[in-house]
Design a protein that fits this description.
single chain; 340 residues; alpha/beta; Rossmann fold; six-stranded parallel beta sheet; 12 helices
Length: 340
């Protein structure tokens, strides 16, 4: 993390996306270290929806264009949004500054546009060892692991299934590669693990308009399973904490994560986390609350999106094993709550 000179942190601060939350956590961590941080909003430059209300006033890219002094600028945007942010900030702003790219990626291969961005970067920061190892294959520039500084929540879950019902949760962005988030696998594992009435499953979904046909099919599949609901409300920090505390198990059968911010938040809120044992989340999947689901690596086969045509692998979680984990964990939690 930069230590000297003006520190500009650029992020889509008006967005609810994971990369935007990462930028907010970055600003908070820098300030806790006593650094003078100047946040610059690049929501519009990144073409992100404005679905979040920041708690402070922010510089715009137009404001930044008038700041031609030195210092460091940290840009929380993956290519090609990274290049869009560079254009919006302008050459005069960037010319005398050290440029740090904070990148999160979910595969071990990269589209060509990532390599095209490297000449504009002095150093790279990433949230996990998984991303670091992938990037070190395509660049000699420094790549430093700087995990998201997720704060310890003020409230933490102390009891599970007090009313005799196990409650599971999965949070995802419908526009962030439906195949990668793999919510249908979580739905299948839940359905196999519990009989109707024994448990509930909540899918908290943002950016539903970007989900298209896949999300519509997912909605239909959820409607056919008793105890499953989808919520799409935008939640502030208090609302998100309340959501975590109302659930007992966080279930993610993702195919790959650059970090897995909701998984980390769930663990800190005291939920049991049942998740695929591969990619960025393995940096923090330790302890009695972490339950690692076995998987096999399979080829990535996508005909659209940023991963189209890439030769890479990702994880296919064992839904039968996940279902058995859920079932066993559910029995244990019910026994602990006196509902054996």
């Amino acid at each position: 993390m930069p230590q000297a000179g003006p520190l500009y942190v650029c992020g889509a601060f008006y967005s609810t996306s994971g990369i935007s939350q990462g930028a907010r956590l970055y600003v908070q961590a820098c300030r806790e270290q006593g650094l003078d941080v100047i946040p610059v909003d690049i929501t519009d430059a990144m073409r992100y929806a404005r679905d979040y209300r920041p708690e402070e006033s922010l510089l715009t890219t137009q404001d930044a264009r008038n700041m031609a002094d030195g210092g460091t600028v940290v840009i929380h945007a993956n290519p090609p949004q990274f290049q869009l942010a560079l254009c919006a900030l302008g050459k005069d702003f960037l010319r005398h500054k050290r440029v740090v790219a904070y990148w999160a990626w979910e595969l071990e291969a990269f589209p060509p546009i990532w390599q095209q961005a490297l000449p504009y970067v002095d150093t790279i920061e990433v949230p996990s060892a998984f991303v670091q190892q992938a990037l070190q294959k395509i660049t000699d520039k420094p790549v430093t692991v700087l995990p998201h500084a997720v704060p310890q929540p003020a409230q933490r879950k102390t009891a599970c299934a007090s009313d005799g019902i196990i409650r599971c949760l999965f949070i995802f962005d419908a526009g962030a590669s439906f195949e990668r988030k793999n919510p249908l696998a979580a739905l299948r594992a839940f359905e196999k693990a519990f009989a109707p009435g024994e448990a509930e499953m909540t899918f908290k979904v943002s950016n539903t308009s970007a989900g298209g046909r896949q999300f519509q099919e997912f909605q239909q599949a959820c409607a056919a399973v008793p105890g499953v609901r989808i919520i799409s409300d935008n939640l502030d920090a208090a609302g998100l904490t309340d959501l975590y505390l109302k659930h007992d198990i966080y279930l993610s059968l993702h195919r790959s994560e650059g970090y897995g911010l909701p998984l980390r938040e769930a663990l800190l809120h005291g939920l049991h986390v049942v998740a695929t044992g591969w990619s960025g989340n393995m940096d923090f999947m330790q302890g009695e609350l972490a339950h690692v689901v076995p998987y096999e690596l399979v080829p990535v086969q996508l005909d659209s999106g940023p991963c189209k045509g890439l030769t890479a692998q990702w994880a296919e979680a064992d839904t039968e094993a996940a279902s058995a984990m859920l079932r066993g964990l559910g029995k244990r939690l019910l026994q602990g709550a006196g509902h054996a």
